[in-house]
Amino acid sequence: MLNHTVGGQIHVEVITLALYYAAEIGGYFYVAPAYKSALEDIERFYPKLKFHQNIITSDKYRLCAEMDENSDDLLAEYYFRHEAKWEAASVTVFLNAVCGTVYFVSLILCPTCAALRIICFPDCESRAPALMATELQSLILSTVPAPDIGERSKWSTRIEASQSGKTGLTAIARVVTGVMRRFNWTTLLVVAESRNPISTIAEVVAKAATVMLNSNVSLIKIDGFDPQTDYVQTMREVNSQTRVVLYITFGGTLRKLMLAAQKLNMTQGEHVHICFRLIRHSSMGNYHWRYGDQDDGVARTAYRTLLIVEGDPLRVPAKGTNLYHLLEGWRRVALEEFNLTYSLPNAIENFHITGAYDMMMWTAEVINELVEANRTDLLKDGTVLARRFYDRTFTTRIGNFTFDGAGAPGGRDCITGQYDDDNLTEVLRISSLTGKTAATSSIKWPSANWPPPNRPFCGYDGRDPVCVPPSTLLVAITAAVLGGTLVVTAFVLILASILYRSRLEDIWWVMPEEHLCVSSAYTKMPSISTAPRRSVIGSC
C-alpha cells in the first residue's frame, strides 16, 4: 500500500499547463469550467480519492505555438518551486488542455519518485512527452493522434483520449473510400491545409486511403491563410490528376478552392468535390456557400458538385436532461468568470471541453478500481494502468466512450450531405467500422452524367488517341515521321563527317594541297586532252 494519503484518502495532484484566454478551442477559458465540474464529481463519486489541481498559465501567450516555445520553463519553474508537494502525493497527474511540448517531463518523472506518474496531454504536440512517459512507464492520455498507436511495444502506456486519434483518422479514410467504392471511383487526390494539426491528419488519411483503395493517393498542401496562395494553379494540378478530390481544409479555404474550380469549368458535373469536415465548430470557419459577398452566386453554382462528409452530428441534449444542465453550467461559468460566450452545439462538439471532464473522470475510475482491490502497488506501473482502458467502455455524465484493444476510441458513423440551396441535405450514411454506405435521399447533380466516371474517356488531359480526329491524327503521324526522318538524316551526315575527318588524320603522309608549289619552269605539261584542264598544283 502507498502511504502518501490524506486522511486515509489517496492523494492525487493534477498539474495542468494551460493556454490562457480563448484564442484556441482548447484554451483555459473553455476548459476551466469542465475541470471544476470533474473535481466536484470526483469528490462526490470517489470518496477514497483526494484530487487537487494546479493550473500553470500565463497571460503573455494567446496561441498554442507561442506557449509551446516557453512551456518547459513555465512548468519547470512551478514544479521545482513546489517539489515537496509532489513528493507528498500518492499520485501525480499531468493533464494539459492545449499546450505543452514538455521536454522537462523527463526531469520530473524520475524512476525514483514515490508518487505515481500519469501524464494526460490533450495538447498541440504531445509526441515528446509521450515518448518520455512511455520510457518511464508512466500512463499518458492524449487527444493528439499517434498514427502507430497500435504498436503497443512502442506505446505501452499511451491512451488516446479523443476520437481525433488514430482510429478516428483511419475511420475517415474508411468512410471516404466507402463513398468512392459505391460509385466505382478509384483515383483520389487530397488537398489539405499545410498547417498542423490538419496537415498531419491529411497525411494519415491519405496513407490509409492508399492501402484501402490499392491505389496511390496524392496529397497537395496549401496555406489557406497566405494571400499569395494560387488556388487556380492548385486546381489545374488537381484537374491533371483526378476527377475525384478530397478537401481537408478550413471552410474559407474550401470556398476559395471551389471558386477557382468554377473558374476552370471544373464544376459542370465531370468532377466530384468531397470535403471532410473535421468538426462542426465555428473555429473551423464557414462551410456554407453563402458568405454575403459578391461571390455568393458563383459559389452557389460551384457547390452543386460538392459533397460534405462529417461525423454524424452530436445531438444537442434535450432541455432538462443531466447533460443539458452540465453543458449549460459550463457555458454560464465561462460567461461569468471569463466573459466568454459560445453556443450549446459548439460545447458538445468541442472535444477539448468534454475531454477535460472525461479524462479526469476516467483516471479517477481506474485509480479507484485498484484502490478498491487493495492493489495500490500497481499504481506505479503505467502499462498496467493503460491496459485497464483496453476494450472497455467508460460511462460519465457526458455519455459512453469506448476504447478498442489498442487503447484508441472508435470513430463515429458519418453522413454525406449536399447543399440544396441553403440547407445541407443528408444523402448517404456511412459506417465508420465497415465503410458500408446507405442512401438516405437522392443526389442532385448538375448534369445527367451521375456518377461521373473515375477517368474521362479522353483521359485527364483530353488527349487520349481514341479522342483525336483522324485528320488530326494523320497530320500528327506525318509530322512525327518527317521529324524523325530529318533527325536521322542529320545524325547520319554528322557521323559521316566525323568519320571522314578521322580517316584523313590517319593518312598523315599525304601533304595538303595548299602546301604544294613548283617552279614556274615546270608548269607547262603535255596536253593529254583537247579539253582545257586546270592545274591542281599551285605556283610558287
Q: What is the gist of this entry?
A:
Helix content is 38%, strand content 17%.
Question: What would you note in describing this structure?
Answer:
It contains 16 helices and 17 strands. With 540 residues, the chain is α/β, with parallel strands linked by helices. The strands form 3 sheets. An 8-stranded mixed β-sheet has the order 9-8-10-11-12-15-16-17, with helices on both faces. Strands 1, 2, 3, 4, 5, 6 and 7 form a 7-stranded mixed β-sheet that branches. Helix 9 (231-239) packs across helix 10 and helix 10 packs across helix 11 (296-302).
Please write out the topology.
Elements: E1 5-6, E2 9-17, H1 28-45, E3 49-56, H2 64-68, H3 71-81, H4 83-88, E4 91-95, H5 105-108, E5 116-121, H6 127-135, E6 139-142, E7 158-160, H7 166-182, E8 189-193, H8 198-213, E9 218-222, H9 231-239, E10 244-248, H10 251-263, E11 272-277, H11 296-302, E12 306-311, H12 322-338, H13 344-349, H14 351-372, H15 382-387, E13 392-395, E14 400-403, E15 414-420, E16 423-430, E17 437-439, H16 470-506
Parallel strand pairs: 2-3, 2-4, 4-5, 5-6, 6-7, 8-9, 8-10, 10-11, 11-12
Antiparallel strand pairs: 1-2, 12-15, 13-14, 15-16, 16-17
